[in-house]
Amino acid sequence: MSERSIVNRVYESILRNKEAGRHYWLRKAYKHKNLSTKEFQQIWSEWWRGIAPPRVEADLILIFEDPIKLIDEALIGCVEVEYFSGKDIGKKNFYEGLQQTLAFSVFGFDGLSLWHIFAKDVKDETIKNYSDAMEELVRGFKLSIFYLVTKILDDDELTLKCFKPCQLEKSIDYFIDSFQSYWVMEGNRNPVLKDSKIKDRRKVIKTLLKIPV
Questions:
Q1: Is 213 within the bounds of a domain?
Q2: Most exposed among 1, 143, 156, 170, judged by the fewest C-beta atoms under 10 Å?
Q3: Could you give the CA distance from residue 36 to residue 39 in angstroms, rounded to a whole number?
Q4: Mean pLDDT of all residues in the chain?
Q5: Domain count of the chain?
Q6: Confidence at residue 1, expressed as pLDDT on a 0 to 100 scale
Q7: 3-state class of 164 per DSSP?
Q8: What stretch of H or E contains 176?
Q9: Residue 140 has what DSSP assignment?
Q10: Residue 135 placed within a domain
């Protein structure tokens, strides 16, 4: 199983669950959205005048209704997914995906998340070691990132065992809703949104993602 196929399966599950009436606050979802195309040129033009920007792809973009309307009615979150198979252990660093997650903050997303997904053949002790080290970074630097760590228990149903931020076993729909639960809190929002330039980029993101102004 590859990282891209994992994202595809998560996205398909989101659509099925939304069709079934779950994910009450979810309004839209996107997968593998390339943020460095001409479509997003207005955002990149400040740095990359006349030059193609580096490729930046968002694994998942989740758009929820914001019940507290902190900025407006939309709560726009970006999720970086990193998949660890048994063969990846020892090759991939525990902080995989962190720089990508932080990079998304300058686009104006309300919420940021790093989601580490481990294959079922990876030992729980190994996952704990990886996730504890990553959590130290997130907490130590007070990063406004929802750090989610899960292990696949059932490949067919995508049943997951969670290690961070809590320990439980749930189906995929539970974890999708957990993004909204975390991001909706004011203290968990993207801190760089205080910058007027970042807020302007958020407006561009809303237009490109066809979110009502």
A1: no
A2: 156
A3: 8
A4: 92
A5: 1
A6: 79
A7: strand
A8: helix 172-183
A9: H
A10: yes
